[in-house]
Amino acid sequence: MADRPGTVALLGGGVIGAGWAARFALNGVDVRLYDPAPEAERTVEQVLANARRALGRLTLSPLPAEGTVTRVATPEEAVEGADFVQESAPEREELKRALLAAASRAAPAEVVFATSTSGLLPTRLQADMAHPERLTVGHPFNPVYLLPLVEVCGGDRTAPEAVERAAAIYRGLGMRPLVLRREIDGFVADRLLEALWREALWLVADDVATAEEVDAAISLGAGLRWACMGPFLTYRIAGGTAGMRHFMEHFGPALQLPWTKLTDVPELTDELLDKLLAQSDAQAAGRDVRDLERLRDDCLVSLIQGLRSHGVGAGEALAEYERALFAAPVEAPARDGDAPLRLHSTVVPPEWIDYNGHAHESTYLRVFGDTTDALLRHLGLDLDAGSSYYTVETHLSHLGQARAGDRLHTTTQLLGHDAKRLHLYHALYRTGDEALLATAEHMMLHVETGAQRASPAAPALLDRVERIARAHAGLPRPDRAGRAIGIPGPH
Predict the structure, then answer these.
(1) Measured between alpha carbons, how far is residue 126 from residues 26, 103, 111, 160, 488 in Å?
(2) Strand, helix or coil at 71?
């Protein structure tokens, strides 16, 4: 996370530029956006809203404080004070060259530039720039705030240090840079996608299949496999125990068959365009683009989370990103005040809601668990500390209902401690009206994570615990602390 810039200049605020704005801002980077289009600001706001929703569901890791997004009037103003520049103008070479040239003349020589081009050669795009050695391709995939892949490619005059710097910045944003060995039209991913797209157009043009049927052929088949492994590993598996050699010997001759039309493109006649439009409208079924984006994001979140448990593909990238977020230093107050700590907040997503229309009871335990994690980070514990506090007993009280979209926050009071134990009291509130929705009382035991046995906390850790204990010493004991469950009756 240390490689994240403090401020980034974005040149272009369309679909990709807005996605970059979300990726940077939600990782704590301030954004200076230049785009002359009147609708650019609204597009960025809408994409940011979708991104907040998606990332809030994707990971339980604490995201940095959100960066600001400031729209400016010129490319020169955008690069003022920026540590990195990401250009995402429309895919027209003359436009990109002019924009990069103007911005580069105003930016210090050491500021790296990246272009989101999906296929234009960086050697041509850097031709008119001041200090062209700092330009590299940084080609993302939509939605930029969720998909980790970004292709990085230098031109003839690009310095290796610029490529390395761009790749490091992207890694700091939770992305996986694919650094190309040399520039080539369309780079890697789009060359593969274009081949598939040509075949898809032919199948519709020749009335072999509808747009919906072509989409089903991918989403219900190979697309699911490709989420965790690409064609080479897939076909190695298809070769059975004999592996890739057997697959190539068995299926290789079929490559000579005239099935595909990879270099032949159907003519985009009015008739074909009308057919595509009608079939696409039928697929959309009245849903606008934002509805479809949210559906796409929800599916991607579920898929990426599933892949995370197996440590492959985008799931591996998510797990690595979460480890970096958890390892990032927590901005603790200079001293712990004489009030319960406020360390965690969240928003109730729709999937936390049960058949009664309010948050499922497991939601409360989840939020309190996240609150405990926030306290441990506040105490300086991280994933590689070698020790941690484990919860050994919990008592929850459900006092109110949370509904989808509610903003929640928690407070934490330290009721007691010794060398091995923490006695915590969490309270859950709805932010705004401050309604108390639930409380949780926890007993936690300090454990050596390697040996899996209880042990006294290290002196430095105990010092931090005792600092909080002194600050909380004068707080009144919560009314619900120490309560037991039972039904009063005759003795």
Answers:
(1) 29, 12, 14, 15, 80
(2) strand
Q: Is residue 97 within 8 Å of residue 123, measured between CB atoms?
A: no
Q: Which H/E stretch holds residue 393?
A: strand 387-398
Residue with tokens 């091995």: 420
Strands 435-448 and 421-430 turn out to be antiparallel
Q: Are 308 and 319 in contact (CB under 8 A)?
A: yes
For 20, counting Cβ atoms within 10 Å of its Cβ (0-12 exposed, 13-18 middle, 19+ buried), the class is buried
Cα-Cα end-to-end distance for the chain: 61
pLDDT, the chain, mean: 90
My answer on whether 363 and 217 are in the same domain is: no
Sign of CA dihedral 288, 292, 297, 298: positive
Do 402 and 271 lie in one domain? The reply is: no
Report if residue 138 sits inside a domain.
Answer: yes
DSSP 433-476: TTEEEEEEEEEEEEEETTTTEE-PPPHHHHHHHHHHHHHHTTSP
Model-level pTM?
0.75
β-bridge mates for residue 70, sequence order: 32
Q: In this structure, how many other beta carbons lie within 10 angstroms of the beta carbon of residue 220?
A: 9
- pLDDT at residue 332 in the model: 45
Residue 281 lies in a domain: yes
Q: Are residues 149 and 197 in the same domain?
A: no
Instruction: Write the pLDDT tens digit of every residue in 74-84.
Output: 999 999 999 99
Residue 481 falls inside a structural domain: no
pLDDT in tens, 435-446: 999 999 999 999
Residue 410, domain extent: 334-472
